[in-house]
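Re: beginner question about structure tokens

> Can someone show what the tokenized structure looks like for a real chain? I only ever see the sequence side.

Sure, here's an example I had lying around. Input first:
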Amino acid sequence: MILSADKEHYMKPRQLAALAVLALLVTGVAGILFANRSKVDTQGLQVVAAENFWGNIASQLGAPYAHVTSIITNPNADPHLYESDARDAADVSSARVVIINGMGYDDFMSKLLSSSGSNNRSVVSVQQVYGFATGSNPHLWYDIPRIPEAATAITAQYIAQDPAHKATYQRNLVTFDQSLQPLLKDVTTIRQLYGGTPVAYTEPVPGYLLSAAKLMVVTPEGFAKSIEDGTDPSPASTEAMDSLMTGKETHLLLYNTQTVSAVTQSVKDFAKQSDIPIVGVSETMPSNEPTYQAWQASQIKEIEQALSKTK
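And the corresponding structure tokens:
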């Protein structure tokens, strides 16, 4: 017999052995839990965004726990022509949350998602969040008044995948929504000062922004669609677009800096010759912009300044 610390009690060897096994099991479980927690804390919630503007928003909403990888990041490339590779497939395969734009803009993601099935993965389609039909303007990130809807949907999936950090994700969402207020205020200012002003674009990248500001787009629909589709506009559409510049029928030209062709360059040249202000807009967030908000703020400010010169 072996005496316990209490001299009035004793334990048999078999009891001691059982206690020792139990202690090892408890220690082992604790070790596993600690290891898993360490893995989550060091690796974070793995998130993939098809485009870097959604990726930047996702990072703000998920800090410090979400580790976000954006697939399309090159501001000099045409996103419509992007082709995915093995690295993209690996990123999507390991992601717990995937964010796509939809609207046919990032169809390459459908192939990546279907080839890397995951029962635990959440997919946020901004198109589905907004309830938009395919075939409409795909540049949903320019619809600033509706960005909070996308942010809410992303946050909901963060909480579903990582409920332990729910409070942090909720606080991030409130902070993010508040950070959009200056942008919305600037859009309201443009609407109040310049609503109804005729403007043109080489393609409908900033279409939702112009609509929110109540600016009147006068670009021939056929011209804009052809440029977006990567085809040459008809002679009639090109002539109509050029005449907007030469006849000063528009007060502003918004020029997609990522889709440059002989046709769009010609339109830009006509605008310069007619002293029509030109504002460059991009589809992908430039690398020198720290946040989605800063990027949009700079473009909105340029639009407001350009319109002020023609009032």
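Each token stands for a local structural state, so reading them left to right follows the chain. The radius of gyration is 27 Å.
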